[in-house]
């Protein structure tokens, strides 16, 4: 297929029978042989028209061509795109909308105007590769070499999948990236976060396929990552993933510490949803303003502060034997944040109003107050936190119907944790059994057998509740252990390919190839990242 418009084919004035013609315009006397991808079609005093022509070897979107001439050019016209000049001999041609498949013929005309010696192209770089010899043998960025090697486990390689799961979090990193970064197509980004309020709020994680740092779901993410480390430690060690897991947690907790500059002040969001979602591109290239938004004593956010307290408390346990000083710092801030959450009551989306359109706290903050108090009890051994958990349970009537375990509703997690920490209190165990019975007997399922709890993020809902069931199988009532383990194992199997496909990018049968993820949906080498590369429009 020919890509681009050429008025009429003109034989090259440079080549014949694969040899450079003597005295051809591609031989500029003292500059040596010109580039074979550009052939002069016709010329007149101080002007010539030339054709660029090359056959692709790989598909790409977006054309960027850097041309170097041996003599000064007055003007260069490229009618199908945009031209910028660095100086009189270096020009950049761009066409971000050009789409090409492998073996397409890229052809277009340029017009060169000059004064003095005729300028001849002596170097042509197309999409970051030298194509001056006319071969067009450039390639796209090579696929990321999977650093997570298969281990041979059957029927699913859980160790490999666990390793690959942490690659996702590396792809979500905001701020200056560390030397240990394994997702090499990511770069430093959002380095000015917090500058508008005089703070360094770099770091943390971007949300989903977006570039906002929403503190509420980020805190739940950190809580769950750390919970897995401490209660399934043997599995992490066997898979060789403890170090990666701790690094993933610390990327969040370091950010939370930055976001807590004063006793009753916590920055719970950086970036605004609407401007962010109107931009489809890499975080390294975003230019929109990224306001920092906070809760404080006059504009509280109990669920945000409490969930962050929970995350820091769990992380303090995970780091206790690894970095005791850091563990103590996390626990001190966790206790302060819990006091802030409990003393200054209020829904966080009433204070950080932008969050209400994306991560509204539908369940309120009672579940977070109970959940965080339980984690603080486990981290400190202070029985006063068990009483605080009980107070929240009674005040907010937390033992009612629960159908999910997610960034919004932590009740099911509180059921599980409470059954461990307060075993003589039957309320937790009863509620946990009721929840698991609902999942196994009354919840909806897909035709393949995946528990279907919500149309938004069906897989993460299934994974979250499978975690609760596996946790109960290990730490709960032995009479239900085998049943709960079998059910949860089946759910994980659904995610890894037991049904129609694997849902882990790069793993198993028929895995996803184009996730809804701005950072990874753009072409390489860097060119324009347009909605043609998005499988869906940007969304929360």
From TrEMBL:
InterPro entries according to UniProt: 6-hairpin_glycosidase_sf, 6hp_glycosidase-like_sf, CBM2/CBM3_carb-bd_dom_sf, CBM2_carb-bd_dom_sf, Glyco_hydro_9
Catalytic activity: Endohydrolysis of (1->4)-beta-D-glucosidic linkages in cellulose, lichenin and cereal beta-D-glucans
Annotated ranges, domain Glycoside hydrolase family: 158-528
Sequence intervals crossing the membrane: none
Tree of life domain: Eukaryota
GO MF, one annotated term: cellulase activity
Record bears the keyword Hydrolase: yes
Gene3D superfamilies in UniProt: 1.50.10.10, 2.60.40.290
One Pfam family linked to the record: Glyco_hydro_9
Keyword field: Carbohydrate metabolism, Cellulose degradation, Glycosidase, Hydrolase, Polysaccharide degradation
Family: Belongs to the glycosyl hydrolase 9 (cellulase E) family.
Keyword Hydrolase appears in the UniProt entry: yes
GO BP terms: cellulose catabolic process
This protein's name: cellulase
Organism: Scylla paramamosain
EC annotation from Swiss-Prot or TrEMBL: 3.2.1.4
PANTHER family: ENDO-1,4-BETA-GLUCANASE
Top EC class for this record: hydrolase
